[in-house]
Specification:
Layout lengths: L1 H16 L9 H14 L4 H22 L2 H27 L8 E8 L6 E4 L14 E5 L2 H9 L4 E6 L3 E2 L20 E2 L3 H9 L20 E5 L5 E5 L3 H5 L15 E7 L33 E9 L4 E13 L6 H9 L6
Parallel strand pairs: 1-4
Antiparallel strand pairs: 1-2, 3-8, 4-7, 5-6, 9-10, 10-11
Helix pairs in contact: 4-8
C-alpha cells in the first residue's frame, strides 16, 4: 500500500515538473505553483550556508576532542607497562628465591672491555640524543655495592662496546677511527655518531631498543660482570620524585636519607625475559614517546645505598625503588600526560 502511494506521488511530481507555470491563467494558482516549484528546487543558498556552518562547528568540536588521542592512549599503555615491570621484577625475585634479574642495560659504553676498560656516557646533544633520559649520572661501584648486588642476583650489565664493528654475517671488522662505517661494516659502535648511524641505517637489523644486545642480537652490546670499580648509571634527579616527598636531596647534593639509585634499562638481554626461568616474562615493553633512533626501553631504579648525613652507605639488601619511562618520567608524570594535566607529549 505504502509503496503504491509513493509511486503515485513520484509520478505526479514528475508530471508537475514538466508544467510551465507561466501558462497557468489564474494568477493565484500560478503563484502557488511557482512556490511549489521553488520547493522542488532544493535548499536555498541561506539554508546551505547554515548547514555548512553547523557541519564546520561539529568538525571543529570533534577535532578538539580527538587531538592527541593516540599519544594519550600510548601514555595510558605506558602506565600499565610500568606497573607490569614493577610487579614482574618483584615476582621474579620471589620465585627465584630472593634473586633479582641480571643482564640489564647499563645505559653506558665501554672501551677496551677485555683489557683496561674505560667507561663513558652515551650522549649526543639535543635532538641527536640517543638516550632520551637526562636524569642519570656516572657512578663507580664501591666494593660493598658490587657485593650486595651480586648476592641479590644482579651479576652483570650490558654495555655498548666501543671497540665493536661487524659485517652482515656478524664477523668483526676493524673500527674506522672516524665517523662513517668501517670497510665492510654494517654495524659500527665506536662513537655516538657511529652508533646513531648504525641505528638509522636500513642496511642492518639493528634498532634502538636492541643496541645493548650482543652481535647475535644485532646490537653493540657486551656483558660486563658487576664488580668493584665498574662505572654504572645512577639517578641524578630529585629523590622525592621516586620515593615521595618524605625523601629529599639528589645524588650530587645529598642530605641524610637521600638514596643512591642504580639506573638500568629493562632491555631484552635481561634474564627477566628468559621464559625458561620461573617468573620469566615473554614480552619486552617498549616506550613509544621517543624518536626512532632513541633508546626505547623503560628504566628500573634500584636503591643500593643511602646517605647518612656524612657519606653514602651501601645497603646490605638493595631494593627495587621504582620504574620510570625512557624519558625519565615517573608513573604519576606519565598519568599527567594521559589525562591532559601535563602536556609533555
Amino acid at each position: 500500500m505504502f509503496n503504491s502511494l509513493m509511486s503515485k506521488r513520484a509520478a505526479l511530481m514528475a508530471k508537475f515538473s514538466k508544467v510551465n507555470v507561466n501558462d497557468i491563467q489564474d494568477a493565484e494558482l500560478r503563484e502557488k505553483a511557482k512556490a511549489l516549484k521553488g520547493k522542488q528546487g532544493g535548499f536555498t543558498l541561506l539554508e546551505l550556508l547554515v548547514v555548512v556552518a553547523i557541519l564546520a562547528a561539529i568538525a571543529g568540536t570533534a577535532t578538539i576532542a580527538l587531538q592527541d588521542t593516540d599519544a594519550r592512549a600510548a601514555a595510558a599503555a605506558h602506565v600499565a607497562m610500568m606497573d607490569e615491570m614493577n610487579k614482574g621484577i618483584r615476582t621474579y625475585r620471589v620465585l627465584q628465591k630472593n634473586q633479582f634479574p641480571t643482564g640489564f642495560d647499563s645505559l653506558r659504553a665501554v672501551d677496551d672491555p677485555s683489557g683496561s676498560p674505560t667507561y663513558g656516557a652515551i650522549d649526543n646533544a639535543g635532538d641527536d640524543a640517543i638516550l632520551a633520559i637526562e636524569d642519570i649520572a656516572a657512578h663507580t661501584l664501591t666494593a660493598a655495592e658490587a657485593s650486595a648486588l651480586g648476592q641479590l642476583g644482579i651479576k652483570s650489565l650490558m654495555y655498548v662496546n666501543r671497540d665493536l664493528a661487524y659485517d652482515k654475517d656478524g664477523t668483526a671488522v676493524a673500527v674506522s677511527g672516524a665517523d662513517g662505517f668501517a670497510t665492510g661494516a654494517v654495524v659500527e659502535c665506536e662513537n655516538d655518531n657511529d652508533l646513531r648511524d648504525s641505528i638509522a641505517s636500513k642496511g642492518n637489523a639493528m634498532v634502538a631498543g636492541n643496541m645493548f644486545m650482543n652481535t647475535e642480537g644485532n646490537g653493540c652490546g657486551i656483558s660486563v660482570p658487576v664488580a668493584t670499580g665498574i662505572e654504572v648509571s645512577v639517578w641524578s634527579g630529585s629523590a622525592s620524585r621516586i620515593l615521595g616527598t618524605g625523601v629529599s636531596g639528589t645524588h650530587a647534593a645529598p642530605v641524610s636519607g637521600t638514596p643512591r639509585l642504580l639506573a638500568v634499562g629493562i632491555g631484552p638481554s635481561a634474564s627477566l625475559f628468559d621464559a625458561s626461568k620461573l617468573g620469566g616474562m615473554t614480552t619486552v615493553p617498549a616506550y613509544r614517546h621517543v624518536s626512532g633512533e632513541q633508546y626505547n626501553r623503560f628504566i628500573a631504579l634500584f636503591k643500593i645505598a643511602e646517605h647518612d648525613g656524612t657519606a653514602f652507605e651501601a645497603l646490605d639488601h638493595p631494593q627495587l625503588a621504582g620504574i620510570v619511562d625512557g624519558a625519565g618520567d615517573t608513573k604519576e608524570e606519565e598519568l599527567g600526560e594521559w589525562d591532559g594535566t601535563r602536556n609533555t607529549i
